[in-house]
Amino acid sequence: MAEKLCAVKGMNDIFAPESAHWEWLEAKVRDLMMRYAYRNVRTPIVEPTGLFVRGLGEVTDIVEKEMYSFEDRLNGEQLTLRPEATAGVVRAVIEHNQLYDGPKRLYYMGPMFRHERPQRGRYRQFHQVGAEALGFAGPDVDAELIVMAADLWAELGLSDVTLEINSLGQPAERLAHRQALIAYLEQHADQLDEDAKRRLYSNPLRILDTKNPAMQALVEAAPKLMDYLGPESLAHFEGLRRLLDAQGIAYRINPRLVRGMDYYNLTVFEFVTTSLGAQGTVCAGGRYDGLIAQIGGKPAPAVGWALGVERILELLKAQGLLPQPPVPDCYAIVPQTEGQERVMQTLRALRRAGLSVQMHAGGPDGQGSMKSQFKKADASGARYALIFGESELAAGQVAVKPLRADAQGGLTEQSLLPLDGAEAWAARLR
After folding, report:
1. Any idea what DSSP says for residue 222?
2. What is the rounded end-to-end Cα distance, in angstroms, of the chain?
3. Rounded Cα gap, residues 316 and 307, in angstroms
4. What share of the chain has pLDDT > 90, as a percent?
5. Count of other CB atoms within 10 angstroms of residue 378
6. What does the entry list under GO cellular component (predicted)?
């Protein structure tokens, strides 16, 4: 016997009924994006490694420790499984001149890859939904994206999701704050953990996002970026707040909210929950006006967010909001192989009419007894059994039997219906 092969650790297979929850959530997202006039974009899973080094920043955790990178054996090109999608979307927009005829509102769904310790809601292959608005400079689109996410939580029925916002200002303002922050942290070098010491001169802003309890008092007293913002940055932030207030969107200003990628400026935000333990962020984003030029395009503003599908599903599960998995409308019981051609023609007609029908299929040992087929029909969750017995087929009919007390439609007791013109009575079984 050949050796059993298993999936890579942290990369999961998803079967029904869980896969039905994914489809349900994806359908909710697609409908929401359509109503906000965001259009779907699909980019490759593999991108040039340089895209993420240049776009995310060489000293980010993602680039330093988490990317799945490799060399193409055929041409020596350095490639990476995408750890996030924004850089790839921007690369695609630049490559195909998508901003030539004006700004774009785009959304995506798909798998991302990061080599980190797998834990609840956080895997090495994980899935994101994201929305990106490119070419818009005002706080109105920042607000639109935040309101869109809030609308999604409302439509899913989620509670315990709160919004945190901050402004990172512009590069010159961040530089002045960075210098003050480094000077402050140097004065307290003995209180820094090893991670903070490593980041002190390469990415000190990320120290403010530390989860180390021993450093909380230190970072709380650190210089605040908000105090270094100029009039234009403050006006952008106040414009966002005004629009959120007008829509009744509650939020908390979190001066320690900095995000993990280097490309953010001005607005940053996160939706967080207390229901998932340490993995509390379910959606995050912000403005990244410099990224398009950084990747090689003509300078243009942009803003977006991404949510973790696994975390949203975990949150829905924790709050008892996942829908029941779908079941077929009908289960076709076929006691004998004779007449299967006619059976399949009828089932195809019913499916074309919009019914979901599961057909009992036999094997080398035959179709199985009527009793065993009825057990399978009941286990399928179907509301009706379609019985294609020998006598029914001879008469050009099918027996339709309700299997559930709550079966809807015009049939409340077993009935004989004609095989010809099955589309005409299909609506009665919905």
Report:
1. S
2. 47
3. 14
4. 66
5. 13
6. cytoplasm
16 marked as part of a ligand binding site: no
CA distance 193 to 197: 6
259 is annotated as contributing to ligand binding: yes
User: From CA 312, how far away is CA 317, in angstroms rounded?
Assistant: 9
pLDDT value, residue 207: 85
Residue bearing tokens 């509390």: 280
Ligand-binding site membership of 84 (annotated): yes
Report the C-alpha gap between 204 and 218 in whole angstroms. 13
What does the pLDDT average to over 153-171? 95
Beta bridge partners of 387: 333, 399
Instruction: Compute how many other C-beta atoms are within 10 angstroms of the C-beta atom of residue 48.
Output: 14
Where is 106: in which H helix or E strand? strand 104-113
The rounded distance, in Å, linking the Cα atoms of 149 and 142 is 11
What is the structure's pLDDT at 196? 86
Q: Is 85 annotated as a binding residue?
A: yes
For residue 363, give the DSSP letter.
Answer: B
Q: Do domains 18-169+229-318 and 330-429 have the same CATH topology?
A: no
Q: What is the CATH number of domain 330-429?
A: 3.40.50.800
Closest CA to 301 of 90, 95, 134, 168: 134
At 339, is the pLDDT very low, low, confident or very high (cuts 50, 70, 90)? confident
132 assigned binding-site residue: yes
287 is in an annotated binding site: no
Residue type, 214: A
The response to whether 86 counts as a known ligand-binding position is yes
pLDDT digits (tens, 9 = 90+) for 273-287: 999 887 789 999 999
- According to the annotation, is 30 in a ligand binding site? no
User: How far is Cα 61 from Cα 53, in angstroms, rounded to an integer?
Assistant: 11
Domain 18-169+229-318 has CATH 3.30.930.10: yes
The annotation status of 281 as a binding-site residue, yes or no, is: no
Tell me the domain boundaries of the chain: 18-169+229-318, 330-429
